[in-house]
Amino acid sequence: MKHVMLAAIAALAVAVPARADLKVTENTTGKGLGLTGNISSTTYIKGLKMRVDTMRGDKVESMIFDVANQKLYSFDSKKKEADVWDMAEFGKQIGVVDSGAGTSSFKPNGQTRQINGKTATGYDMTIVMPSTIGDAKNGMQMTVNLSGTTWIVKGAPGSSDYSKFYMAAAEKGFIFTDPRAAKGQPGQAKARTQMYRQMAATGGVPFETQMNIKMSGEGPMAGMMARMGNIEMLSNTQSAESVPLADDMFAPPAGYKLNAKK
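^ that's the sequence the OP posted. Answer follows.
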């Protein structure tokens, strides 16, 4: 998932009038359903805006979450165009769709460990969500089970900014997956958003997350999908720093064609 986180330390905030912005680099490894190797990403947070750049081969895929203006942008470095979603309208669309009887849990497991020289607290998390493969009405019914552990450094630099962004995004009904996928599985998208909100409420920043994704269902085809659909992912924060970020980072590059999506 993933997921996505750093800010000015209180002492620095007192010493320096200008507000610092946040930059976090992350490495994710995964296996299952064709996932191999490493995926590198960089997350930038400035107030109520977040940009995530993900390296995929020689291409950079970018998503910008503009909570302040209720916009979500998606584009890559190979095209001169960007998809744009009006998230206020999008929220209304998925709000009227039956999201299914999903359940989620996020709670401390009583463990701590050292990560990058910092003490991290462990939290166990699960999401159980009905899903449909194929046509929404006649597709194959499956259950997606997400479970894992995230290690959070409480009070880490950036905790306040991380918390403010995700809490505001959850309040506005933002989703952190491709909107096209979220339309088909709105329940999953909403459950993930609430999970991020619970993480933000801890008062810390995730430094490591291990996630297992399993699928289950009835019938021969569902059984085959269940065997193929087991995915394991591990995300590690590589660096986190306070840096000034330009406002134009949080919009598609100048000259890009904007494609309005519904």
